[in-house]
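Dear colleagues,

As part of the handover before I leave the project, I'm documenting each prediction I ran so the next person doesn't have to rerun anything. This entry is a single chain, and its sequence is reproduced below.
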Amino acid sequence: MKKSTVFLAAFLAAGASADAAKNVILMISDGAGYNVWTATSMYQGKVDPSNPLKGTQIYDGAGWVRYPCSTYSASMSSTPDGKIDSSLIYNPTKAWDASAQSAVNGSGDFAGYNWVKNTYTDSAAAATALSTGQKVYNNSMNWSSFPAGRGTPLDGRTIAEIAKAEGKAVGSISTVEFSHATPAGLGAAHNASRNNYAAIANEMLSSGVLDVIMGANHPDYDDNGQPRANKNYSYVGGVDTWNALVDGTHAGGWTLVESKADFEALANPSRFTVLPQKLLGVPQVATTLQQGRSGGAVEQEPYAVALNANVPDLATMSLAALNVLNQDADGFFLHIEGGAPDWAAHANQKGRTIEEHLDFNKAVEAVVAWVEANSNWNDTLLILTADHDCGMLMGPNGATAAYDNLVYNGAGQLPGMAFMSGNHTNQLVPMFAKGANASDFAYYVDGIDPVRGQYVDNTDIFRVMKEAVSPTTTVSGNEDALNVIVMISDGCGYNTWDAASYYEYGAQGKQPYEAEGWLKLACSTYMAVPYHEGNNSIPSGSILERNIYNSLKAWDSTAAGYVYNNDTTGAFVGYNWLKQTPTDSASAASAISTGYKTYNGAINWANWPAVSGRAFYDQTLAEYAHQWGRKVGTISSVQWTHATPAGLGGAHNFSRNNYAAIGDEMLNGGWLDVIMGAGHPEYDDNGVKLASASSTKYVGGDSNWAALKAGTHPGRWTLVQGKSEFEAIAHSANPPAKVVGTAQVATTLHQARSGGNVMHDAFDPSYPLNSNVPTLATMSLGALNVLNNDNPRGFFLHIEGGAIDWAGHANQPGRIIEEQIEFNDAVAAVINWIETNSSWEKTLLIVTTDHETGLLLGPKSDTVAYDAIVNNGQGQMPSMKFNSNSHTNQLVPIFVRGPGANIMENLVRGDDPVYGEYVDNTDIFTLAYNVMRPKYNANFLAAGAVEFPGGWKVSSWFGAFWDGFYPWVFTLDSGWVWVWEGSSSDNMWMCSKSGNWYWTAENFYPWSWDSTNSKWVFID
């Protein structure tokens, strides 16, 4: 027993992820799109000879996480305009459109060229996105776009300020002026305009955030590193600031270094004795270290003109900064920028562009070596990227052949290449990461590019860095969520929640999920492609950016002269926009289930490639949970094969309407343990038994239904039908292992019963609730009882109040309140279960909706824009009016409590003027995935024999990480052993057959250590 405990504890100590990274380093090659990285590798000869487009740089090797990254801004305005321009959001279809088109903004005979050239970010907005996780207008320096006209400084929200608050040292360095957009943005400066250099420099020097600042534009030197008569002090804060720095009297306590020799001394541990605590390095050159020197013709080869001899290179500056910052025992955050690839690309200087990025590559190599000599990859996160592309570099025939490839001409030779622009573009840029938290990028994927593959956004880099620097919650080891419950009130917008609360309590804020301890945010729900594009349930291969939630459009109270799609009213522009851009429940469920936007009608089916799409097999929360040893359930108050329970239940189909096929997969897929809902083929909507059975499509088809009733289904399901059977399951001390609960009613538990006239009040006594069906609360408790029974691995459960949506479609004010109260009762029951049978330390509960239905507003909303519903007191119907009979693109509420809940704060996408900060429904996947996945860091290696229970010895062993799945692999003298987790042998399992070690999905952990008899035993 002790041997196995020590053995496994040693592995976990060596490889378990820390709660936070000690050090975070972000390196940016400004303006360097994909082809700049590739062209530089070609010039260096660091390419695969069989495929010169594939690099062999240090960051191309093993151990690095790689993703493309989108870089778009909120607005191309140069002042705060209070806008988020969704047309700027990266769109793969538009970015790669090879259709011929008249040139726009320079050479660009293809539609894709013109689109990326006219939707670009600038460096300030890109730096702000990286620094704060917020999209802003071009020209912003950590300054919000809202409100229009003046904006708001994003004080305290930059990664530099967050790191400083955690007690870390902070630095920002660049090969261009330190008060320039990127180093200033990552250096925690705040200004409405990036051009206010003196003010920005003074803030950087005086704010107390930074401990290291380095960058060019020495007042006394020109671009060739020669003394100049006309001195420029603006980039260093003005003449008074500069004089104080030179005299050593600046209040910031800076040590100023200027000479190349001083930089080199600080970079070399053998040459310094005492390091400064606060270092300002200003090399003796003007705008850039090298790019601005004389020469530099467009076609000039790299290094055709000798480099400035009196300045350090970026590698030297980086090492000096690292050595100074490393004095802080709490670690550091450091931004390093190769700033002049952008300058060279603006000027279309082929040789200088390669020179500058090659200098960046050398700095990367120096930083990697420093980390491995002075830290380790468990303590340090290193991220490499660009803030945007500049110049749109293509192959030599790019002007006539769309997206022409670079041509490799051998090491030391300029590749065949040509610039297509003299400005920034909206192309994806590369991103590389290694070390602590690097694997976190896997659950921030925003979309799929047909050329580059899965991509993240620059705001996601902030999110990963923030979690590394300052974890919002501990999400490793025993503090993960044992259980995750997602409760969805289908179709329930803000006003439906309020209307139900008015009726139930006579006031807002009385629901159990509105109490203290809950995180409350808004949530966007948009899809990739809506029904009305004419391709219902057909993958389009695109994302229509006009569907993305836009607060300005959503709240536009301008009078409208038309009504959209025969909806009941459409008096205002905002109403009509909300009604034109809705999601359906299938694409919303898919977004929550997989983290990907897709087309309306899709059940966990990708929108790419066009026409066929592809299934997200093994990529849903339900499937992940099963793979990780958890039990899984999905329940609803409507048919269990309907869009939301099917989507959150892990089904896959290109059309939500293929109910029988969806039901067949849910029953036979192998990952579900509980399925509950309506859709009984032998009862009508009033719970009355039919003379003859109706279609069995909602329960998986004839053969599945017959096998379920006979108790012979190969899935070993127990069929539960009657109300009393559901109630018994909810309270049984020994519930069945797998349950299909199909309530004795047709489409919904209650909403579709007789008497659904739109004018009827809630709980109209003339039309009582169906008496033969369970409540959603009872179904929820039954599911929890089954999933929790004899289950140390935890569970994932989806619970849907599905008929709020149905009542919204039918504009039934009474029924919509009935259904929401039914849902609220279920939430209360689940909360009570958690507090009685689990705890908030073990169980994460997410309460939200998939979209809004009915555009429910106040009684005067057809003439008064966004009129508020009227509270008429407890037990009284509120005064309200539906303005649609379909879904809308309104924000919806989300409430979160339990382990990892605060991670959601890291995922905020925007700030709505009415509902405040909002996340997206794909972020629900991110949160649930994050707290369920096993967390290990396998970047370690050990040597020597380790004694193992049963007398075996480990002759060599190594860590392997497969997306968190069975992460530890040990090579034994006798074969392979797969080890799961824990600090003792009670939690350690392996598989064996005929002396060969293997794992099978059917036997998840079939071996256990028998400490009494000192041997491994098989668990059947």
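The mean pLDDT is 86. The longest strand covers residues 169-177.

All the best with the project,
I.
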